[in-house]
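re: ur question from earlier - yeah i can do the single chain one, its not a big deal. heres the input i used so u can compare w yours
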Amino acid sequence: MLDLTRTQCRYVDEAPGGTAPSFCISHKDRERLKGQRGRTIWLTGLSGAGKSTIATVLESALHARGFHTYVLDGDVMRQGLNRDLGFTPANRAENCRRTAEVAKLMVDAGLIVIAALISPFRKEREMARALIGADRFFEVYVDTPLAICEQRDTKGLYKKARDGQIADMTGIDSPYEPPDHPQMQTHSDESLGQTVARLLVLLDLP
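and the output i got, formated as C-alpha cells:
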C-alpha cells in the first residue's frame, strides 16, 4: 500500500494559464518499477524498406529478454488515431507529430517504443527527437534502395503511383530526405538477424 505520508505528492489543478498537473509518480519511478529505461527507436525509410518487419523481430527479441515494449507502426496509426490524415506533406508532418506525441507518453511510462513509419522529412524527425528527448531517441535509417522496395511492393502502392492512380508517393512524386546523422543505418545486404543484433548493441542490450 502506498504510504502518502512518506511520499512527496502534490497536485496542481489545471488553470486557464495552462498549468499542468503535477503527479505523484515520476518517469523515474516507472522506469525503476520496470527495471529499464524508456526510449524510442525510430525506424525511418521508404515504403517496403522493411521497417515493420524489423520492428516486429526487434520487439520479439526484447520481449524474450524481459523488456516492456510497444510498436507504433505507421499503417496501424493510420487506421486509428491518424485515420483522418492523407499523404500531403502537411499531413505527413502531422502524422509524424502525433506519433511522436504518443511515443513521448509511452517513454514517460518507462516503455521501450519502436516507431516504424516512413517519416520522410528531416524536420519532422528532428521535431520528434526534440519532443521525446535526444538522449532517449534513436534514429535508425532503414536504407533499402527504391528499386528493391518496388520489387517487393507488398501493398501495390508503387505500381499504382507509377500508373498515376495515387499521388504523393514517397520516392516517386514526393521526396524522401535521408537522415544526415542517424544513430544506425541498415543495409539491404545484411540479414534481419544481423540488423536486430546491431540494434540490441545500439541500445546497450546485447
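The helical segments are 27-34, 51-64, 74-79, 89-108, 122-132, 146-152, 157-162, 192-202. not sure if urs matches, ping me
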